[in-house]
Amino acid sequence: MKRRLLWLLASVLVGLSSLLGPSSAVWAADPQQAVFAGGCFWCLEHDLEVLPGVISAESGYSGGTTANPTYQQVSSGRTGHAESVLVRFDPDRISYATLLRAFWRNVDPLDGEGQFCDRGSSYRPVIFTGSADQLEQASESERLARQELGTSGALAVAIEPLKRFWPAEDYHQDYAERQALTYNFYRWRCGRDARLDAVWGEQARLPVVWKTATAFPTNAG
Asked: What residues pair up with 44 in beta bridges, in sequence order?
């Protein structure tokens, strides 16, 4: 669905950005950076960048083998990348553990074949870890998520070592703010919030996340 919206509403920008491509790669091993994939990067970027202590959130691609991938290449499913978000944060204001907690609340951890209405490997949910500490905390967050969901089975969110984060084309950045009407229609039509409510119940909304810190400690990390 997102690809159809892009084709109808931003075809000129798509073509131009395809020719230029992203100009740089970002290595996110810095402990003040985190990379997550959770379906449409427009949505995940928007959901994470509003958290107190987050400095910025940038849409891009991680987990594949092609250098400088374009949106068209990634969405074809042939590069191995997932739509991802690079979060830069102030650890004195927000911890990596808190970011993990917010990430889980904004994905469907039972679906590894995509997220919501977007299907395919480029929309798979992943926590990309850039250090041993991030790996340890990500693994613990999975255990706590299973505990909260009341399941002993494995969840569909992968935990993978970060190799590269490639910034997406400019027209994808801050999409929720720049194209609010299109974004809000897409998000509603995709059923993202309805599914989050169904999976997480009262925990699905970020204001509730900050009120209950029993399962995911907010001062860790």
From this structure: none
